Amino acid sequence: DFLFFWGAVFLVTTTLVALLKKENKELTPTKEETKGITDTYRLLFSIIKMPAVLTFCLLILTAKVGFSAADAVTGLKLVEEGVPKEHLALLAVPMVPLQIILPLIISKYTAGPQPLNTFYKAMPFRLLLGLEFAFLVWWTPKVKHEGGFPVYYYAVVLLSYALHQITLYSMYVAIMAFNAKVSDPLIGGTYMTLLNTVSNLGGNWPSTVALWLVDPLTVKECAGAQEQTCGTTVAAEV
User: Fold this and answer.
1) Helix 68-80 / helix 188-217 crossing angle, nearest 10 deg
2) Which pLDDT value is given to residue 31?
3) Do residues 91 and 158 touch, judged by C-beta distance below 8 A?
4) What is the DSSP secondary-structure string of 111-129?
């Protein structure tokens, strides 16, 4: 129902924009930065060959490895330990106002000549929160009782998520501000698209690898069959 409602809202608003929004014909169109797909990829290749851009791309592709497991696996592990999925979904509701306000606050600090300073300062705190998330997963089964989980447990989870959002948005807004600042205005769209794509890829591939490594790195013990190993999926099922 949620997805259906917002899907309808997106369709209606997009259709209204298409029908009602008119282009300003008085303005003379600027010269296109590229003439076709081939030119675009040739331009992207020439940008990425620049030493500074290449170094930055390598940095941003590996910068999020340290907290990929905490970001990708924590919620799944909490559900595995018995936290209801609907309760975790409800905890996301108070995060919405925070997600709206945070970019407005952080943008004041990223508007200067060195926007990446905010990125650097937020990183150690986000790494520490990864350790805190690991402690949270370890602590979860210890506070569980027959009726579920106490209120103070959800308060700790909510506070942890809020602190995580602060560090996440500090890094996100900083990297977006930096990309906007260094992009050549003559080819701004292509330049920013390249940097933002690399930035998104740098967040996605570590999470994928972290999810893939969860099963082989999880230590399992067989209850009632000491001589049996449960290291593999097949053995665990047996």
Assistant:
1) 50
2) 58
3) yes
4) SSS-THHHHHHHHHHHHHH
The alpha-helical segments, DSSP class H, found in 21-112 are 37-48, 51-62, 68-80, 85-91, 95-110
The pLDDT of residue 216:
83
Q: What is the mean pLDDT of each run of 10 residues along the chain (238 residues)?
A: 95 94 68 67 85 91 92 92 89 88 88 88 94 94 86 92 93 90 78 89 92 86 74 73
pTM for this predicted structure: 0.77
95-110 and 151-182 helices cross at what angle (nearest 10)?
40
Check: CB of residue 181 under 8 Å from CB of residue 114.
no
pLDDT of residue 47: 85
Give 151: exposed, middle or buried? Use CB within 10 Å, 0-12, 13-18, 19+. Answer: exposed
**DSSP annotation string for 149-189:** --HHHHHHHHHHHHHHHHHHHHHHHHHHHHHHHHS-GGGHH
| pLDDT the model gives residue 42 | 83
C-alpha distances in Å from residue 41, one per residue of 30, 83, 176, 192, 193: 21, 47, 22, 14, 12
With H, G, I as helix, E, B as strand and everything else as coil, classify residue 148.
Answer: strand
Closest by alpha carbon to 190, among 51, 58, 27, 36? 36
Domain ranges of the chain: 39-214
